[in-house]
Amino acid sequence: MVLVPEYVVMVEYACKLNDFGDTKTLPAGAYVKPIDLYYISPVTLEKWKFFNKEKEVFCYTAYGILPIPKNIVRLR
What we know:
Strand content: 35-45%
Number of helices: 1
Helix content: under 10%
Distance between the termini: 18 Å
Number of domains: 1
């Protein structure tokens, strides 16, 4: 059996999905998977041009690849 690290969001987080102001809420305890910045496409980086790699991490979420603050993501 292979063990895969499971990461969760510690608190409820409102994610901005696009430039039109659409948001979705990730509930506390929602599973996410952090992605190394090397694997993020230039198109995604252009969409999130205000991304701060010191404070945020891109994650696979139920709503797609989104930047989430590092301080609310933890290993389950």
